[in-house]
Design brief:
The chain is an alpha/beta fold and 157 residues long. It is 17% helix and 31% strand. It is built from three helices and six strands, in the order αβββαβββα. The protein starts with a helix and ends in a 29-residue tail after the last helix.
Length: 157
């Protein structure tokens, strides 16, 4: 989900809710402690130089159980970040603390923002010798060892 989509959704909401992919809700007293732009420049295992940009939201829970972040307040934080940091309309990555800091993609289900698990991947599979797709074969094309095969009435079963 891109930043522009979040900015379009927020004015339609009464409350800002985040939910993990497993159904667990981020406690409603969460804070958005950071909104920023992350620029990642790296080289993959195949030697290709790459660059990624994401808008980052960091969610945090404190012991202030009465705290509630309203949609208009989050929209103001986003606008301030755009003005002061020059943040552009990129995909959003959300950081949220569980056992360690988790990174999530963001989706919206019509009521709640969903934190979708991110996974790692090899970006240069051809250079690593990883086949892009498993080879598919028809069973009729397989070489069958006739000495080890069962036949009706052969007594092997």
């Amino acid at each position: 989900m891109k930043l522009a989509e979040v900015k379009q959704i927020l004015p339609t909401l009464e409350n800002v809710e985040f939910q993990l992919e497993n159904g667990t809700f981020v406690p409603e007293h969460f804070h958005v402690t950071e909104v920023g732009m992350i620029n990642k420049n790296f080289i993959d295992c195949g030697g290709v130089i790459r660059s990624e940009k994401v808008v980052n939201f960091q969610l945090w829970n404190a012991d202030d159980f009465e705290h509630r972040l309203k949609p208009n307040k989050l929209l103001n934080i986003i606008k301030l970040s755009e003005d002061k940091l020059g943040i552009e309309d990129f995909d959003i990555e959300v950081e949220y603390q569980s056992d360690t800091i988790g990174k999530y993609e963001l989706e919206f289900n019509g009521k709640t923002f969903i934190l979708k698990n991110k996974t790692t991947a090899c970006l240069a599979q051809d250079a690593c010798g990883i086949p892009s797709e498993k080879e598919k074969k028809n069973l009729s094309e397989l070489n069958v060892n006739q000495n080890n095969s069962c036949t009706p009435g052969g007594g092997c079963c």
